[in-house]
Amino acid sequence: MAIAIERSRVSARRRNRYRARRWIGHALTYLGLAAALFFFLGPFFWIVTTSLKGNEDFFAYPPAWIPTPPSLAHYAALFTRSSGARYFTNSMVISSLSMLAALAVSLPTAYSIARWRFGGGFLSVLLLVLRMLPAIALIIPIYIMYKMFGLTNSYLGLVIIYTVVYIPFAVWLMVGFIRDFPIEIEEAAMIDGCSRLRALVQVVVPIIAPGLAVVALFAFIATWNEFLFAVVLTGIETKTMMVLVTSFTSGGTDAFYGEASASVVLGVLPAFAIAFILQRYLVKGLALGGTKG
Amino acid sequence: MKRFTLLASMAVALVGLAVVGGLWVSPAGAQRPYEGQTIRAVVNAEYVKYSLSLIEKDLYDKLGVKIETEVIPLDAFVPKTLLEFNSGASPWDLVMFGPSNMPDYGRHFEPLDPWIEKLKLEFYMDDIADVYKKLMLRWAGKIVSMPYDGDVHIMFWNKTAFERADNKKKFKAKYGYDLAPPKTWRQWDDQSEFFNGWGWDGSDRKLFGAGASYKPSASGFSYHWWRARFFAYGGQYFDANMKPLINTAAALRALEEMVKTMPYYPPGVLLFESEEPKTMLIKGEVPLLYSWTSTGKRVGNPAESLIIGKAGFGLVPGAEIDGKLVHRPSMTPGRAMAVSKYSKKKEVTMKVLEFISLPDQSLKIVMDPKTIMDPWRVTHFRSEKFRKSFPGADEYLDAIEKTFPHVVPDPVIPGADEYQRKLSFEITEALARRKAPKDALETAFGEWEKITDRRGRDKQKAAWGEKLAEMKALGIEYHPDWAAKAK
Amino acid sequence: MQIGAFALKRKQWEPFAFASPSLVLIALVIVFPLVYAFYLSLQNFDLSVGPEYEYVGGKNYVEAVFQDQRFLGSVWNTAIIIAPSLAIELLLGLGLALLLGRVIRGRPIITALLAIPAMVSPVMGGMAWRMLFGVKYGAINNLGRQLGILDVYFDWFGSSFISIVAVVLVEIWHNTPFMMLVLLAGLQSIPQELYDSAKVDGATAWQSFWSITLPLLKFTMAVGVMIRLIDLTKLFGLIFILTFGGPGGATETVAFNTYLVGFKDFRMSYASALSYVIVGGVLVLTLAFLWVQRLREARAG
Fold first, then answer.
1. Distance, CA of C66 to chain centre
2. Cβ contact (<8 Å) for A275 and C119?
3. Matching CATH number, A75-290, of 3.40.50.300, 1.10.10.200, 1.10.3720.10, 3.30.300.30
């Protein structure tokens, strides 16, 4: 009898200690995550508030962390004096076209690899190697070739290079999707008289569409963020947002703080939008390096 | 009665509308010869684009032309534009460029004389200040461009710092001579040491000793600061055999002094381009700065300057050689405007060039503090409007004119941009203490030799020979003994 | 099944036809330029001098590897940026992944928020941090002064050391989320039963971490590190906007230096040679890494 009571008292104490430790564990976890959020998102918060500040707030000390009153003057200036609308459009158009082209070209290739093991291991290795290729190795010959064909300062030029550079990654992701897709459904469609291509487009694509959407969005972000090709190959009409931001570095960023911060806010909008849309796919897609060109 | 009033008021309204509408459609419409045309200009900074926007309304009213301006940032400007030109084409009509790069750009520009004849253009050539006439107009004997921005370095100081009795006493006690705006580099260094780290304006803030631009971007800021000392100590770019003289005793002394005095300059100086030290000067945070003359306009700008009427303007310090003062302020880089040879709108662009060079239009540009463009016409310096635009403006303009006899131009030879960039890079390496000054200059020497070899030693030697003679005529030559003698 | 096999055999050209658009594009836009670049690297094409050029064999490569102090300096810079970045990204990413693994409610949203820095361009991130580092008006210095840590302006790019620190800091900010996601994926693939049975056996959290989590994560960590390593050798946009290689050449990376040579000095041939040296270096690095991995796996049996 005594032993039983002893044991229950002992286990009660142990339970309390365990609960306390668990509570501390939880608190620390959330504290750690809060600190992480402060570090990783803090800069964005500051950039957004800076883009809304007037001169008295930006140059004030003690620093004014929240602008009062906030003003959209810098955005207005960005869109008028610095042609922000045009460059935002450029980025939009180029990224959208590259994304669509990459999808259109990569899907059949991925199908080829998934269904027929086209190219054997060689192709897969080649694609992997191409992913590792630094853009700097390509930029010089591409620049010379583009100058010869008049492709500099054009949408087409950038779209071509972006599409091709993204193919290896798009193919890699899509091979996985297609392999997971049961072949019987395609074969059923083909028995009904479909050509393989039609089977692919009308049967497979609608079902793997969510996966394709993920690949598409990652392609969009990768091309939106691309810098080296953009800075070398674009001109006044085709500058992208990434190149626009570099024009605010002369004279020290203090002089153009308003437009610099406004252009950053616009330049990271797609990232924020896509992060929210793709919350659940982030682990898979980003982890495989989907947002790097 | 009622109907009459109604009809009468309608008639009045209609007439009024017609008048307003007629005015709206702009009366000068009939006289605008190039109505609806747009030309493309390329410039190397946002503030140049801004300067063009100052005259665009008048330009449109007079000629009906609009300018679409592309800004290529400073660092990429020369390479990107030259790359375009060298490939035999260019998307621009009006080209802004740095005159020191004339040897590389000149052959892509359309000579002005035939057009002056054809269109009866008037550029008021006699009104251009001499130094700019010599530097900014010609290539291979032909006139191909007009000045746009006259850049020389002058010295600016904060009068409060120098006139406070307390400061004067402290300085005399420590250094043994009277506190006055520096005439030699030794005085400048003493004073930047003296002023660093306390409130020389009577406050309790921690202020700094002097301002400078030490970033090696574009054709190199840090090197412009270095060469004022280098030439004062008897330096020259190359000797007659195209051997670089940038690793001689004069060069070393100049660089070592700069490295030693680094602590007296504000944090961030290694990344300062032209505007940051000017901002510090006009906010009263540094008492001394030598920099481009556009600083003066910012000094006098009530929207941002705290030292209006309290600033002094003068000659950049020099060195005392055998009892005489030798000053060698830099004339660099300046800006000029030219018409591209490959332009399909040469006539319109020539008219635009004429327009923006007109004395009153160019005065507008060089007077505005936000344009950073500097006066280059004689009438700019004598303009009553300019001389009265802020307290001290007349002293400021006089100081510029007094500087002209002493200026040292850039090395105006093919590859100028690359030579200057490589040297400036090494100078900043030494200032950042990544290399010893001697090593930095030796590396720069090696880089200069490489450039000369790549471009063809004989060709470079010939081009340099001309410039050497021109500089000699201005009194600038290599003096190996000065480095040790200079006080 | 028979019908399927029949359908497969019928059109031999189909696989090729499906893959051909991308293969053609890759051949034209990647393979051909690479070959052309190699050809160029054996000439002395220098646009600043003129459009003509001649064959010089391996001269550019010799110069790059043995004589070009600035390039070798950039190799060193790249190395000292990569080492701490990689190490800290791994540690921090692991820590964050573990923390996230303990959270059930709100995990998707917190993950999405933390992932954002990895999804913005290094140029945008670099510009934001450049302003944060601003000497007089930057948030960091202002915060420091408000908290009393700093008493006068601090120059984040005043010396080689500090500017490398600044670059590494921004790099870590930019890419730790990536490592975190990779490791999170790896963590989620470890079966919960292993932990449960360990707890029954009386293991503490620390012990199960060491003996279950780490070993099973090794492969994922290796993949993550290798991808980051290769990406770090390409470091360019961040440098361009944050420091432009400065002060002096303190933060010039190999890719940045090559860009300067090709697009500021116009030395196209030499720049091509440099880029091949870089590719060669990355190849060697990757092979070395894989070899070390294989060794360790063999030893672990």
1. 26
2. yes
3. 1.10.3720.10
pTM: predicted TM-score of the whole model, two decimal places: 0.86
Residue C144 near chain B (CB below 8 Å): no
pLDDT band, very low/low/confident/very high, at B27 (cuts 50, 70, 90): very low
Nearest-CA residue of chain C relative to A217?
C119
Residue percentage of chain B with pLDDT more than 90? 69
CATH number of the structural domain C36-300: 1.10.3720.10
Write down the residue that tokens 């800004």 correspond to: B71
pLDDT tens digit sequence for A189-242: 777 777 777 777 777 788 888 888 888 998 999 999 999 999 889 877 888 999
Q: Which residue has the tokens 């720049």?
A: C271
Please name which of A219, A226, A181 lies closest in space to residue A200, comparing C-alpha atoms. Answer: A181
Residue B361, number of CB atoms within 10 A of its CB: 16
d(CA C120, CA C126): 10
Task: Tell me how close the Cα of C74 comes to any Cα of chain A, in angstroms.
Answer: 14
Mean pLDDT by 10 residues, chain C (301 residues): 47 78 92 94 85 88 92 95 96 92 83 91 94 87 85 84 95 95 88 83 79 85 89 93 88 95 90 94 86 76 55
Scan residues 112-151 of A and list those with Cβ closer than 8 Å to B: 147
Domain segments of chain B: what residues?
33-150+334-398, 153-331+408-485
Average pLDDT, chain A: 83
In this structure, the strands spanning B37-43 and B153-158 are unpaired
Other C-beta atoms lying within 10 Å of the C-beta of residue C189: 10
CB contact at 8 A, B92 and B42 = yes
The domain limits of chain A are 2-57, 75-290
B19 CB neighbour count, 10 Å cutoff: 10
Contact across the interface for A246 and B73, Cβ inside 8 Å: yes
Q: Residues 252-291, chain A: which have Cβ within 8 Å of B?
A: 252, 254-256
Q: Please give the C-alpha separations between residue B193 and each of B74, B137, B262, B433, B436, in angstroms, as whole numbers.
A: 32, 42, 10, 19, 22
Report DSSP state, residue B30. Answer: G
Q: Is A60 on the interface with B (CB under 8 A)?
A: no
Fold of B153-331+408-485: D-Maltodextrin-Binding Protein; domain 2 (3.40.190)
Closest CB to A251 among B40, B70, B273: B273
C281 within 8 A of A127, measured Cβ to Cβ: no
Are the Cβ atoms of A247 and B73 closer than 8 angstroms?
yes
- Phi, psi values for residue C236, rounded to 5°: -145, -60
Distance from CA of A251 to the nearest CA of B (A): 5
CB-CB under 8 Å, B273 with A252: yes
According to DSSP, the β-strands at B318-321 and B324-327 are: antiparallel
> Does A250 contact B273 at a Cβ distance shorter than 8 Å?
yes
Q: What count of CB pairs under 8 Å joins A to B?
A: 37
Decide if B275 and A251 are in contact by the 8 Å CB cutoff. yes
Q: Does C237 touch chain A (CB under 8 A)?
A: yes
Fold match between domain B33-150+334-398 and domain B153-331+408-485: yes
What are the helix (H) ranges across B283-376?
Answer: 294-299, 346-357, 359-367
| Alpha helix (H) residue ranges in B210-268 | 221-232, 249-260
Q: Do B87 and A235 touch (CB under 8 A)?
A: no
| The CATH homologous superfamily of the domain defined by B33-150+334-398 | Periplasmic binding protein-like II (3.40.190.10)
Within a 13 Å sphere around the CA of A159, how many CA atoms are in the beta-carbon half? 19
Confidence of residue A3 (pLDDT cuts 50, 70, 90): low
Q: Is C7 on the interface with A (CB under 8 A)?
A: yes
Residue type, B117: E
How many Å apart are CA C32 and CA B487, to the nearest integer? 63
